[in-house]
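Quick start: read one record
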Amino acid sequence: MGGREVTDWQGKRVTVAGLGVSGIPAAKVLHGLGAAVTVVNDGDDERARAQAADLEALGITVRLGDGATLPEGTELVVTAPGWKPDKPLFDAARAAGLEIWGDVELAWRLRGPDAAPWLAVTGTNGKTTTVQMLASILTAAGLRTAAVGNIGVSLLDVVLGDEPYDVLAVELSSYQLHWAPSLRAHSAAVLNLAPDHLDWHGSMEAYAADKGRVYEGNRVACVYNVADKATEDLVREADVEEGCRAVGFTLGTPGPSQLGVVDGILVDRAFVENRQKNAQELAEVGDVNPPAPHNVANALAAAALARAYGVPAKAVRDGLRAFTPDAHRIAHVADVDGVAYIDDSKATNTHAAQASLAAYESIVWIAGGLAKGATFDELVAGAAGRLRGVVLIGADRALIREALARHAPEVPVVDLDRTDTGAMPAAVREARTLARAGDTVLLAPACASMDMFVNYNKRGDAFAEAVRELSSADG
């Protein structure tokens, strides 16, 4: 990974916007390359002061409580991805003709001459699972790889580290893509598009455009979701390298240049000779864990990117079999009295909850939390026929209750009127009284967790613990 030109950075005056998981590493890397780094941060609390002290000990300048003013003499701005584009700091940078990079852009620029190509994944939901599946498939093919990016492993650490990789599986958020203008992936996928983070992007159009940046300059394949026309539209608008192909994935029978499902088999009609007539079997639906429809779609997207990189069919099957999903993603907790209890606390928005609800036939649904501006009519109308009952918790549960009254008035609803962490055991007990043998009690809140829990992991843990208490009481 060697051969980076560091002399360009000597004395270059760089402003880093934001102390945090991306800002601090960026500041340290730039300082190590010889840049004169100033970090600006809106907050000035105890944690920020401790972080600032660590950076100042290295010789990095830090300005707390003033993230709006551009330091004099700045030649480049590197921002944490979450900083909104309309902040005054960026207005000043643009007015001065300066470039604004995110941490992904910085990592892309700092890659060595023999750097591993990137297989990139974005979308409203399913990014992390798809990237992890992709890394598992690449590993099964004997390739040195890592799942990196928005997934928690810093791209800066990877591109500057000593570990030589063959190829990287890279998760990218819309924020990161917004601030990564020169990124050019080997191949990329947009899994789906649904309204999310619109307060940050300003509009659905701007959000979609930032997602679509992942296709810019792709060399081999732009992977899109046949069931989500907006993703195909982004491919059409992308400026790609000569010979790059649009490759669709579908839960139905695939056409030429698509991956899909035939009689429970995942098949490839994109990366085969004579794709008009031929198809390659990749894996069985049962090799996907769990085999819920939206997760099979994730597997097809991962397979498409791996196949674009030249991975053999056997590695797709072996990689999917070896993959273990993260906790709180459609995780089967226990069966009690013939009822399955499923933890999908990760379903923090309506789009994710819709996919989760579609995976089961007869559901007692535990939902509610912080809605983040979402509406629930479409979600409830689509799931109404599958609902045995609903238990509502959390600050914005009334929004879901009202949608249920409009679209599923016959479904019994228990409104717990609670936002304390102890509400979860009560919700599980109420769900048990509504459920019958063969049903699924599904925690898929369609809301964020912070009204009641530190994060969705803690919410899922509380659900699982409450289910285990049911099991032990029965025992």
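The two ends are 57 Å apart (CA to CA).
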